Amino acid sequence: MTRPAPGGEPMALAAAHLRAAGLRVTVQRMAVLAAVSESAGHLDADALRERARRVTGALSLQATYNVLRALTEAGLVRCTQIPGHPARYEVEHRDNHHHFVCLRCAAIRDVECTVGAAPCMEPRLPAEYEVREAAVTFWGVCPDCRGARPDTSSM
Amino acid sequence: MTRPAPGGEPMALAAAHLRAAGLRVTVQRMAVLAAVSESAGHLDADALRERARRVTGALSLQATYNVLRALTEAGLVRCTQIPGHPARYEVEHRDNHHHFVCLRCAAIRDVECTVGAAPCMEPRLPAEYEVREAAVTFWGVCPDCRGARPDTSSM
DNA sequence: TCCATAATCTTGACTGACTCCACAAAAGGC
DNA sequence: GCCTTTTGTGGAGTCAGTCAAGATTATGGA
Question: Are the beta carbons of A87 and A99 closer than 8 angstroms?
Fold first, then answer.
């Protein structure tokens, strides 16, 4: 039996990532980062807090937000804000992918870039505008929701 | 002197639009719709309420939200939700344009479609996904902000 | 023109997501 | 191991938006 700590390897990995990013290594940060990594992505702050608590025991909501902001600023985590829903977090892969959001269940699914590596990065704007990022969000209905209820909504 | 009502022609126009959309014509609705039309677009509910109040005198925030929802559902107004900012409204032109958002001052500017009429509408998703809309948001720095402060932020 | 009725507006309380603040706790360099 | 600085905690507060109930008002028919 060689389980060093609750959370095991993901925690060690998280610690390494934190250190590499020049962040202080705390139980809370490891736990939250591990939670983001382990989930398939797209969990909100509260869900991540719940998961992290399995390791830390207690974890304030404030701390969760602090950690997530630190991780986001360090480039370890990507924050996806979908209008009308709490912000969700996923591991930063730097692949510039986009998102499909289900209008019914609000599920999020990653979508590969439609065109090349940085799609739609050539808006028709005067040169003075400095474009740094393009976020594409596809709105629609996911297979699960289509199956459950053919199509009642018209929006 | 033939000024029929405070607000004048825009109000009459708004009334006509409301009637055409099958909505009841109320002072509040005319005032809000006129406010959306007169502004260059991209005002939030509170700003629109302020403008509408010049005509209606009093107007509750709740009524403003009700009216904006009715107008949006009727297809007269388009609601643009930028993560981290209150929802903003503009007249629906059905031209499928997108938005540029300044990271510093949060100003919004319309952007013509990058490719054809419905850009990026071909995400690499299984056929079971029903895509209804694609929203493209460009994040960057507007000319005003670049001029005022060369470039201090790195985000 | 008046009236009945259903849609709309007002007021006030409430929710959810997130932030601010001050103090306590802990990480990491010496 | 000590000390400085960064982090985390708990509680109050903010902001955008919603819910609910009763008062008003637009609209179609008599």
Answer: no
Q: Are A111 and B124 in contact (CB under 8 A)?
A: yes
**pLDDT, tens only, B68-123:** 999 999 999 999 988 788 999 999 987 778 889 998 888 888 887 655 444 455 66
3-state DSSP assignment of residue B135: strand
Please name each of the domains of chain B with its CATH number.
9-80 (1.10.10.10), 95-148 (3.30.1490.190)
* pTM of the complete model: 0.81
Q: Cβ of A130 under 8 Å from any chain B Cβ?
A: yes
H-state helical runs in B57-150:
61-73, 143-148
A139 CB neighbours in chain B (<8 A) are: 131-135
Of A28, A5, A20, give the one whose Cα is nearest residue A92.
A20
Q: Is B111 helix (H, G, I), strand (E, B) or coil?
A: strand
Query: Closest Cα of chain B to A2: distance in Å?
Result: 42
| Chain B interface mutation, best of A85, A89, A114, highest count of B Cβ atoms under 10 Å | A114
The DSSP 8-state label assigned to residue B117 in this structure reads S
By C-alpha to C1' distance, C11 is nearest to: B60
Mean pLDDT in residue range B130-152: 79
SS (H, E, C) chain A: CCCCCCCCHHHHHHHHHHHHCCCCCCHHHHHHHHHHHHCCCCEEHHHHHHHHHHHHCCCCHHHHHHHHHHHHHCCCEEEECCCCCCCEEEECCCCCCEEEEECCCCCEEEECCCCCCCCCCCCCCCCCCEEEEEEEEEEEECHHHHHHCCCCCCC
Helix (H) or strand (E) holding B80: strand B77-80
Shortest Cα distance, chain B CAs vs residue A11, angstroms: 28
Tokens of B21: 């959309």
